[in-house]
Amino acid sequence: MARKSRKAVVEQQPEIVAAPAQIFPTAIYARLSVENSGKSEKVDVITNQIEICKSYLADCPYLNLVDVYIDNGRTGTVFDRPEFNRLMNDIRSGRIKCLVVRDLSRFGRDYIETGTYLERVFPQIGLRFISIKEHYDSFDTDGSNESLMIPLQNMINALYSKDISRKVSTALKAQMEQGTFQKRNLPYGYKWNDEHTNMVIDEETAPYVRLMFQWKIEGLSIPTILDRLDAMGAPNTELRKRQTGTRKGDGCSCKGWHSSTLYGILTNPHYVGDTVLGRSEKAIYRGIKSHNVKDKNEWIVFPDTHEPIISRDTFQKVQDIMNTASEARQTKMMQSEEHRAALVNFFDGKIVCADCGKRMYYHRKKIDKDKRGRWYAYYECSTAVGKRYEKCTTHYLRQDKLEPDVLAAIQLQVKAALDYDKLLDKLRGSSGEKSIRDQQNALITSLNLKLNSLSKKRTRLYEDFADGILDEEEYTFAKKSYDEQYADLSRRLDEAVQRKTRFNEAMSADNKWIKLMKSVSTATQLSQALVDEAIELVRVHAGGSIELVMKYGDIYALTLQSIKEVQEAM
Q1: d(Cα 86, Cα 90) in Å, to the nearest integer?
Q2: CATH of residue 57
Q3: What digits encode the pLDDT tens for the residues 273-304?
Q4: Residues 476 and 560 in one domain
Q5: What are the DSSP E strand ranges found in 383-499?
Q6: Could you give the number of structural domains in the chain?
Q7: Is 347 among the domain residues?
Q8: Is 57 a member of any domain?
Q9: Which of 119, 67, 57, 113 minimizes the C-alpha distance to 90?
Q10: What secondary structure letter does DSSP report for 369?
Q11: Of the candidates 37, 91, 193, 236, which lies 20 to 30 Å from 116 by C-alpha distance?
């Protein structure tokens, strides 16, 4: 295509805005709270949040939308949300460089944790954070009044959340006490009448409830009853809700019966005809998480409100059986308390099955036929013993075997760290290190020059379009090409800077892995403090072999790689 002449200059040229120096891979985060989820039929609140964010991004060509993260029906008072966790993983991996939300309350209502993210976490990892409603952009803050308003807004969001919780909790409590509260989910064995005003017996599932109580009176154990229900093809509670349409989905993933469900049915007074409310409690404004209320005096009971499935005499017999069994367990636990207290689990939350990734259960057990009453402890895969429908191969490891192996592995790492520390002292300032640093700096400088040159080309491209030298189709085609080149160069620059940063970290005298190993070098026995300080995770393989993941393991790998690169460059 022949280039048009630029000699004909229009007298009043439009203002030329320089293209931003960096393109940010951007994410949108949207959230809908538990209190509001599913209550709006006319307005799709989640969609509105996303559209507002997309409209904002349309005016910001330097913000390139990469992904949208949605937590629907998740409270803002906690940050353990599925999509938020996925977002943070993408941010830490470098996939996302900018985060956009409609307003701060969508990000979170806990002002302390929200403030921690905005003031510490995000600045440290270089994330740009934009909240549209508050006109907040972390790249524009400088300690001014605008940025100082953010913590105050977070506090307002937290107070608002607690106020809503207080009002909802108070209203529900009043409805319960007045008898006007209507349960959304009926107990297994019941269904709504045609007028949806009262519960009536569901003749398809009530027989299973009667069998549960009968079998328990006959002395059957919980696992045996569960096996019988599965063998009979009795639909469990979740599957039944889907069959009756009270929950969506076909229930294919609702596998069989579980002990907690059976226990809940066997202890539920609803089956004698009483309506019992307040068996569980949750109140955000008081800092109370959802939990079962064990004190029956705190329950709100309305007797004889519906037709019973079992008699009061049958129900009481089952309660007596279960209470007797519970008291026997408590007595046994008290008798062995001293022995069990002597066995301490140093790896709580840090030991998993290497095959399925699930946690390992910690068990204490008396040695059979030991006259002195000695005990031992062992770890076992939770899916091998604790799950009825998720079986793993046997993974078993005794504590007295695990602890010496872990200590030996730590001491081996300590020896390696001390050796590498001496080697790093010799390599720092060497010709090999200087050569690598020169290469890194040259690459970063070259990429920056190419980015600046490309940025100028994009600016001239806009000038040509504004001057009428290029039509819209030509401009769009050329801009797309430049944008792709710019994104590729930006990615390569990020990778080069990260490589340089990692190299500096590995070669530094403050190498975190080496400092950690030095701090534990005098340890001669395993302790809780040593495990907490040095160990990230223990994976147990079939047969009892272990794989130890040490803290700063990534720095360890970088150290080995950097030493190899320096030696090769010498």
Answers
A1: 6
A2: 3.40.50.1390
A3: 887 776 655 444 344 455 566 667 767 777 88
A4: yes
A5: 396-398
A6: 3
A7: no
A8: yes
A9: 67
A10: T
A11: 37
Query: Which amino acid appears at position 4 of this protein?
Result: K
CA dihedral 173, 177, 181, 182 (to 10 degrees): 120
Nearest to 570 by CA among 374, 407, 447, 434: 434
What's at 568, amino acid-wise?
A: E
pLDDT tens digits, one per residue of 136-161: 888 876 544 444 445 555 455 555 55
**Residue ending a domain, choose from 333, 357, 390:** 333
If residue 409 lies in a helix (H) or strand (E), which one and from where to where? helix 399-427
Statement to judge: residues 83 and 220 lie in one domain:
no
Q: Give the C-alpha separation, 320 to 209, whole Å.
A: 18
Same-domain check for residues 440 and 546: yes
Sign of the torsion formed by the C-alpha atoms of 365, 367, 368 and 373: negative
33 and 158: one domain? Answer: yes
Flag whether the pTM goes above 0.70. no
Spell out the SS3 assignment of 503-556. Answer: HHHHHCCCCHHHHHHHHCCCCCCCCHHHHHHHEEEEEECCCCCEEEEECCHHHH
DSSP string over 150-198: HHHHHHHHHHHHHHHHHHHHHHHHHHHHHT----SSPPTTEEE-TTSSS
Domain extent at residue 124: 24-167
For residues 480 and 475, what is the distance between their CA atoms, to the nearest angstrom? 8
The predicted-structure confidence for 313-366, as pLDDT tens digits, reads as follows 999 999 999 999 989 888 888 887 888 888 899 999 899 998 888 888 899 888
Cα separation of 532 and 555, whole Å? Answer: 18
* Phi, psi (degrees; rounded to nearest 5) at 556: -60, -50
Amino acid (1-letter code) at residue 493? L
Q: Are 259 and 222 in contact (CB under 8 A)?
A: yes
| Alpha carbons 232 and 208: distance in angstroms, whole number | 9
Q: For residues 314 and 310, what is the distance between their CA atoms, to the nearest angstrom?
A: 7
Whichever domain contains 226, its CATH number is: 3.90.1750.20
